[in-house]
Amino acid sequence: MGRIGWSLRRAFLTILIAGGLAALAASPASAVTLTEFSGGLGAGPVFGSITAGSDGNVWFTCEHAIGRITPAGQITEFSTGLKAGSMPVDITEGSDGNMWFTDNGTTKAIGRITPSGTIAEFTSGLNPGADPQNIVLGPDGNIWFLDPSATAAIGRVTPSGTIKEFTSGIGPVSSLNDIAAGPGGDVWFTDKGNTKAIGRVTPAGEINEFTTGLDQLNSMPSELTEGSDGNLWFNDEGSPTAIGRVTPSGAIKEFSAGLQAGAVPTSPTLGPDGNVWFADQYAGQRAIGKVTPSGTITEFTKGLSESLPVAITAGEDGNLWVDQAMPGAVARVTPSGTVTEFTAGLNPMGGADGDEIVSGPDRNLWFTDLGSPKAIGRIDLELPPATSQPGIEILPPRVGSSTVQPPGPVSTTATFGNQRITLTTPSPSLCTLRTGTLPVTLSSVAIPKSPAAKLRFAGAAFYIDRGLKQRHRLTKLVHGRKKTLTVTVYVANATLRRASATLALRLAGLGSGLHTLKVRLSYRQTILKYHRKRVVTVSKALSTQLRVC
Fold first, then answer.
1. How far apart, in whole angstroms, are the C-alpha atoms of residue 232 and residue 249?
2. Is 0.85 surpassed by the pTM of this model?
3. Which of 264, 265, 432, 549 makes the best surface tag, with the fewest CB within 10 Å?
4. CB 437 within 8 A of CB 99
5. What confidence tens digit (pLDDT) does each residue in 402-420 have?
6. 160: enclosing H helix or E strand
7. What is the DSSP string of 274-319?
8. Are 269 and 276 in contact (CB under 8 A)?
9. In the beta sheet, which residues pair with residue 112?
10. Comparing C-alpha atoms, which of 132, 110, 134 is closest to residue 121?
11. Are 52 and 93 in contact (CB under 8 A)?
12. Closest CA to 349 of 328, 322, 320, 324
């Protein structure tokens, strides 16, 4: 998450859309019901870090506890295993199916809680004086976090709890703010300190910071998310404010045309239409904005009240949803920019204080309300049932019957530049147990004597449906009041750095029926521009289907 300057809260959940894939169809006319749940919440405040788990529940952090709420609204808090004086803040799901969190209490730690509520905390490997924040699942299957302490670092935690912090490459007088998984298997972060940089850290812990394109005096890069174009997008809270883009190679460009005068953009989030959406917290006129992959910004104000937009996420209905505070509301924004606010069902005492919002495993939206009484809220979208087909089981033939050969593997091929790409998967007429793994083979070979552009394989990222969920979080003291910020994104299920290889993708947490496997490949190309050679990164996306029992 980050240390937020102008922005008071954070954004959430982004839906990854591979290039060339159709956007989700929005359902603006669907019914909406808001319900809040308080029973089972302890006396301590809800910090608001909330995330969806593959166990079908939603998880959140409290003072001295980790909370779980079922789709029916039953809340349970767990504290056994937390260290004395604990203060869990940020939470995300790991590649192991457990939830991982930061503990900013008396003893700084990284914690893990199983779906059944068993907690373990880890401290070995943290730097002296560490202040772990902003936790996120990396493309390498490890958990990554920021440590914006005096010895600024980027930390990595393995599923077994082994912690290592990396400091080399971070600029002097840093102010680490946000962290997100990016393309090519790397993790990216923002640094609002003297360097004013966007940083990249490899799975091995090699850190590079990029400043080109940023005003070293006035820029304040804050939060970031991966866009549908394979680049990272961020909001710049400096003067003037802007929306920025950074390529996997570190080239930065900022856009401000289209922002209203006095704009305070925050919480960049990838929308279901392939654009990046953000909240504009300018007090004179609240707005929700979007920026296209080419940098065209449009802001929408009609339908918004004076309530502060603090968190934004994409819903299963294909719309954007915004949690609002002071006095409080929930807003729905269609991809075309039509805004509708809802207040019925929100906390009636003291005004609702929206804080964080996430799309849950039940296809509804869940949010935190820090009002009085505090609550966890659910937005029932009342969507039609998801269309899925039952898995097909192939039984062995009976004695005396003829042998039926099951369908063979399916190959999806494409040509890109001088490369012939082949993706091989099991036939979708066969189903794979959700407790198992899916064998996938990818190859990219050069076509002999091809006159097309010469490309060199750089990497590939595999996404089953949207990919793996990841979250991270920060609590800030603004005007004497605690404000909590969270981001949730979908990251790759696996990455590949060799041109040809076979891997096994975990299917845990997937429902039965058809799913989409998307692969985004990156290549390097040497071009001649202004009589000088330059290396650029180009990409290609492939997709196929798989069936889970």
1. 11
2. no
3. 549
4. no
5. 334 455 677 888 888 899 8
6. none
7. SSEEEEE--TTS-EEEEE-TT--EEEE-TT--SSEEEEEEE-TTSS
8. yes
9. 100, 120
10. 110
11. yes
12. 328
